[in-house]
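Reader question, answered in our methods column.
A reader sent in the components of a multi-part assembly and asked whether the whole thing could be modeled at once rather than chain by chain. We filled in our standard form and ran it. Here is what they sent:
COMPLEX SIZE: two components
ENTRIES:
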Amino acid sequence: MLTVVKNQMRVCALSVKYNIMREMVNKVTFLTNVGFMVLNNATFLVQWMILLRMRGDVGGYTMREIMLLWGFMAASFGLSHILFARAFSLSDLIIKGKLDSFLVQPKNVLVSVLTSATDSSAIGDFLYGTALVCACKPGVGGFFLFLLLVVTGTVIFTAFAVLLGSLSFWFVRMDMLQNQIVMGIVSFGTYPDGIFKGASRFFLYFIIPVGMAVWHPVHLMVSFDAGMFFTVAGYACVLLALAVAVFYRGLRRYASGNLMVARL
Amino acid sequence: MRKYVVIYKSVLLENLQYAANVAMGFFGYFVFIFIFTMLWGYMYRTPGELIAGYTKEQMIWYVMMTEMLFFGSDAASVAGEVAGDIRGGNIAYLMNKPYHYTLYILAKYTGEWSIRLPMYAVLAAVIGMVMVGPLPEFPLAALPAMALCVALALTINAVFKLCISLFSFWIEDATPFQWLYNKLIVVLGILFPVEIFPQGLQPLLKLTPIYTVCYGPAKLIVDFSSEKFAEILAAQGIYLAAGCGLMFLIYGKGVKKLYVNGG
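And here is the structure of the entire assembly that came back:
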């Protein structure tokens, strides 16, 4: 059992390594993608400088919390797109019947699918997020907590994308909806939770998991609470289990598109 | 000119068939408006308060209008198509056709937004009326003037995005430059009106495309005046002429750099 897991992990690591090497074939394009993504994210600091100039805080967040918020959002979203980019286009694979080449591999289907692509610009997201949190001087312990919470955030984003994408086994046009909802998470996740009230707040914590992936981690960095930490970790595990179950349940309904694909 | 009208009409009819697909994008628009309604609801603490000369209702309507232009035009498609044509080599076929490639793209793009924008305009009006309430003293008679400024704004934006995409003749992927241009438009024009920035920066911002692409038309819708209309229209005329000149120049230089690798 342990050997199987070890082998699977090795294949995943190799897959991600070769994805990144493929992206780096054209070094100028690769570096431009990474560098401009950092700049692209940094432009939003202007927005917060303006808003915080009007009021001392927005939804209870000062500049430090805003930087942590953007740090978690960018790093978690970035890591999920570096390691599991295909989760975010899973719908497209299912609708177009492109899963065949993964089904014949002697490894776990879902893991093979998820690790089959890397978004090079996401490296810029990850670096930007990590740099922002470092700029908040979290200390050594705080930095390890950040890394741990980025892992839970990555699991939550990936699992949610897999869950939405897997619905394509039952419904058509889920590709557009998956994209819209994922972008919706990014939009909500870059604003403080303090501005949302009532039902929308519950919705954003439990149904669309922005709260668990980004807002709770920010609160944990400001003031650690073991109960909140285990809630986030538990939520990530439950969501992951649910996503895996829904994917394999849907896979039974999968119909090939007779598409000839060579995976190199 | 007639051939571009024919291209426009054919794309318009084609896009009419897929109007339902456009509606799938409404979710993203709604999310943005919801967030900004909450955000400005938090920032305005007393009723009737003014921030940078805008009431809460005007500020939310401003964001709704700029986001409507952003979502309703989907200029990303024009950028993506041009970059794809150049990278994929399709440009070699398109440049020999009896039209100018850049004007062909602009005619196609206009056909696309002619369906998308009215749909988003209706959505924006409905959401605005429900979530914020009607705009006080909205001049219905000025609608044609507003529509003209909106059409020019979308065309200017497309011309600048096209210019950036044409850099694909020299670099393999111009997408990162598109991100940066988009973000500057979003942060400096879509999210806030120019008046919210420090006094020293405002004249500088009015010289950028932001003034003609999003601030100008949105400001006219939220707070119309005929002097403002004349000023924005003049600025748009200058920007359109300069943008088109730049576009033809880059395209002219770019096609000389074109290498066809067969296929």
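What stands out: The mean pLDDT of chain B is 87. DSSP finds twelve helices and no strands in chain B.
Send us your own complexes using the same form.
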